[in-house]
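Q: Please design a sequence for this.
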């Protein structure tokens, strides 16, 4: 970890002290600096920001620095190194001893010696980076030991199943870490930033409405992302169970049409229903909620990647197989990307991932759900005509 990339949290009830420290840190090249004058918010900020160092005033209203450290002791993992630099005007021996006993890494007396402050912060962050590196090496070593153990017990059927689940979990965690920075931090930063703007008494009503819209959009994006991570986790771990029942096919199609009509209308897209076979009166043995979720992911994807034209929801019936068809007139997808699009956290390429927000989990969730519903999914891509998705399910599930 580059020490200049460290996240620094300053807690002081005096705005002037915070300004001095922030100016010093920014001059030294630090960019990720956060602050609060309300000591009651420290615990929440710790969970939200995951800071690398805490600069903590000792005497504050609401909660003192001692009380803040008592709270942090309950949530900081045992054995971890989280530096707390206490800032105090009282440098008596009793205070020094009490501060260190409470969990502080070090302390500085006010008024600050800015050079000393900078050097102490740099040294603490460097020590934390070494700890995190060592922790990562230990985790890597533990992982290699587990893999070797599993190879030696390869003939054990139950262990093979456990190994497959562990590998799926590792892939999920790796993908999660690769995507968490953009897909969670970005909307979270928007929420935190505009939340502070919206309470400014000097802004106009129009500005408040604009800020509220941004907050709502970022909140919805964050909620959708977290829901996607939860869904793929359940699917990958095999903990999602389908509850089969007889479902009206026409109801499914009408529900999808109603759910996405407004979203298409907002993009000036036409949403069409197109039936090759008449769905009225037909029943399908499936899990209604999971099927709607799976098809919704495809439709949402189609709308996202269709700048103009239409999205069509269709239905056909063939050899006791219900076929749901989702067509769009969007940008299409390279044929070589078909397999990747069903993998966790994959979109067609990195440029699309950055142009279109989202975790990239939509189609992998759909694929897992359709497989759970004993169905299949395949694609028909055309860079000119758009994309068609075909979801095929047996009318009667073989339970």
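A: Design:
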């Amino acid at each position: 970890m580059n020490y200049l990339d460290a996240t620094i949290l300053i807690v002081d009830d005096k705005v002037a002290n915070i300004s001095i420290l922030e100016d010093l840190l920014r001059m030294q090249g630090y960019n990720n600096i956060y602050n609060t004058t309300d000591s009651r918010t420290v615990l929440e900020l710790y969970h939200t920001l995951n800071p690398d160092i805490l600069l903590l005033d000792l005497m504050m209203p609401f909660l003192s620095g001692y009380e803040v450290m008592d709270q942090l002791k309950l949530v900081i993992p045992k054995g971890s190194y989280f530096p707390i630099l206490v800032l105090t005007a009282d440098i008596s021996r009793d205070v020094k001893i009490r501060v260190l006993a409470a969990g502080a890494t070090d302390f500085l007396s006010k008024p600050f010696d800015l050079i000393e402050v900078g050097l102490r912060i740099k040294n603490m962050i460097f020590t934390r980076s070494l700890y995190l590196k060592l922790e990562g090496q230990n985790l890597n070593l533990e992982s290699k030991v587990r893999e070797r153990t599993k190879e030696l017990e390869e003939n054990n059927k139950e262990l093979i199943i456990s190994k497959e689940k562990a590998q799926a979990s590792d892939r999920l965690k790796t993908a999660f870490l690769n995507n968490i920075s953009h897909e969670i931090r970005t909307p979270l930063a928007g929420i935190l930033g505009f939340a502070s703007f919206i309470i400014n008494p000097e802004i106009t009503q129009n500005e408040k409405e604009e800020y509220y819209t941004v907050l709502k959009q970022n909140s919805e994006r964050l909620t959708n992302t977290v829901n996607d991570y939860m869904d793929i986790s359940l699917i990958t771990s095999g903990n999602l169970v389908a509850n089969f029942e007889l479902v009206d096919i026409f109801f499914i199609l009408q529900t999808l049409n109603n759910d996405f009509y407004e979203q298409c209308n907002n993009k000036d897209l036409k949403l069409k229903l197109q039936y090759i076979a008449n769905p009225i009166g037909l029943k399908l043995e499936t899990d209604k909620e999971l099927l709607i979720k799976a098809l919704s992911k495809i439709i949402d994807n189609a709308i996202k990647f269709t700048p103009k034209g239409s999205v069509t929801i269709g239905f056909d019936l063939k050899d006791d197989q219900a076929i749901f068809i989702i067509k769009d007139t969007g940008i299409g997808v390279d044929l070589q990307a078909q397999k990747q699009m069903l993998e966790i956290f994959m979109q067609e390429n990195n440029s699309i991932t950055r142009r279109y927000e989202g975790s990239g989990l939509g189609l992998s969730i759909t694929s897992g759900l359709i497989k759970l519903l004993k169905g299949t999914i395949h694609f028909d891509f055309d860079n000119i005509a758009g994309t068609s998705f075909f979801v095929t399910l047996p009318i009667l599930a073989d339970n």
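Q: Thanks. Anything notable?
A: The mean pLDDT is 83. Residues 85 and 106 are 5 Å apart (CA to CA).
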